[in-house]
Amino acid sequence: MTAWAHRVSYIRIRGSVVVQDGFLPFPARSRFSRLAINNSTRRDGSVVVAEYIPTLAFPLDQFLINNKHQMQDIELNSLKLPPLTRQTFRGFHKLRSLALLNCEISVIEPDVFEELEVGLNVQAVTGFTPQLQTLQLISMRHPQLGPGMQELDWSFLAPVSRTVKVIKLDDNRFRNITRTSSFGFTG
């Protein structure tokens, strides 16, 4: 393996999507901590509606299975994602920023960030305090795939309520917003 491969900390993929089942997870890299995948950007940098409509859900947790323990910043744009469940972010103990922009997501389960809270116990072993500080769920629908997520349960924020500082929920069309657990943001 070449020396540069071990120094990679940031990967950006533009104009690419998973078009079939059967992919290999990204190889383990000791410094890889930031990922950006954008299916709607042209080479000149202008943003357009994705030229290729994603039909397969992008398997984020499986794609990063070898690196999730060190991921700090993830930005996904114009991808179809599977329902976000407790399993989705298991092992992402250092995640600071999550941006899901123009992604087709049908469901965010209330316990989606439970595994990040479990990560707080990692501090005793590693000395690192995980903190999801920025969460962006912008336009949670893909214009060519339908209306996207219709309901949002505020309870999904409970596990990260002590650390999150910025929440952006721009341009969504929720029909129903609920809260199934009692929690408050700590001050």
From TrEMBL:
Protein name: Uncharacterized protein
